[in-house]
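agent> Task received from the user: take the single chain below, predict its 3D structure, and emit structure tokens. No templates, no multimer pairing.
agent> Plan: (1) validate residues, (2) run structure prediction, (3) serialize to tokens, (4) report one or two observations.
agent> Step 1 OK, no nonstandard residues flagged.
tool_call: predict_structure(input=
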Amino acid sequence: MVASATQGGILAPVALNGGGPNGYPHALVLIHKTQARDGHNVPMVDDYNQPIAGTPVETKFRGYLVELSAAKIHQANEAGRTIGTDMLKAPPSLPVTADDQIRWDITGDLRRYEVNGNPRPAGGREHHIEIPLQLVDQ
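)
tool_result: status=success, residues=138
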């Protein structure tokens, strides 16, 4: 069973059964961008010598997403968009890079985050890594 919680700066959803392996309560998906390659495994580029995006690789994992700040901005059409800065705590084995994105592994939840900096060990130890995130879609 899953519930929503925003108390104490923790983003929803939170598993009511105490979380998953290693105590990480949030089911998430890592979206790793790739570059298209030809039949000889050579990276492909367009007419302007820019890399052509390949099919993203998705990896499911569990983590702990903490909201650090949120601000409401208004675009020219007066539609509001929430921009947030968050911190993800994840297992050190997660193969995340500064070019990746993170999304919730819940049907219908459209929130998507970009990794906003390099992942770093929490407190200099390898118990978990901290990954700065920026909310980009909601």
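agent> Step 4: summary for the user.
Strands lie at 2-3, 14-15, 26-32, 57-74, 80-90, 101-104, 112-115, 120-121, 129-137.
agent> Done.
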